[in-house]
Amino acid sequence: MSTVAEGERRVGVTLQRHMALTHYSRRALLYFTMIAGALVLLFPLYWLVSTSLKATDEIDVFPPIWVPSHLLWQNYVTLFETVPFWTYLKNSLLVTLTSVVGTVFSSALVGFSFARLRFPGRNLLFIMALSTTMIPGFVTLIPQFIMFKNFGWLDSFSPLIVPQLFANPAYLFLMRQFFLTLPVDMEEAAKIDGCSYFRIFWNIALPLVKPALIAIAAFTFLYNWNDFLGPLIYLQSPEHFTLQLGLAQLQSQYQTHTELIMAGSALTVLPCIALFFFCQRWFIQGIVITGVKG
Q: What is the reported pTM?
């Protein structure tokens, strides 16, 4: 009997070791895959920074030079001396931040109206608003240009800012869905206390959908901050150029300042990276949130 029990114990120990080995092997494979994927995604960022610190004769060579022989921080100084970087930055911040505020507020306000107000044709108007997302932007590009030209808005920030002050259909749908998850009891209690619809929206509803607001603000910031086509079409004076359009002026038919373009791009991408690290937890919360438990 003792021999049988000893054999069963050894089999059990072997089985446990095998299970533990399988578990750690799977975790090691998972971590290896995640690290490899992260390195692949981070390589373009590394190449961007590396190229911004290279000398001109180290850029267009084969095989490529992965690490600069000397870190030329002077490229960043030359960038500020070559182009009015601070002017481009001011213009980009003006267009981007104004667009963020306008888009977030208008999308939230209209989304709340569709979710809580009762008026004739509400569903039809909502469907019409969503149907505009199926129209490609290039279809309306020429009519918009003609309209803004007749308004006298060319070579100004108005064509880039004013359309952002109206609710975006995709964000409108997102905000409506979030507002629909809020308990109606809070709205009814606020009405009994004498609150208007706007005060309910501003003081009660908005704080409860903060994850959606931050997600919309982040997406709007990234879109307008990296927008190149809009400024290219509507802006003509160099003093009105945004960062994306201003850095493109470093590339011409006869010469391309690759190291300066990479230096400017490295500085331009910093706010996007900071925004990602700041908003990532709000993105996750915005996905998993389903309502208010009470």
A: 0.82
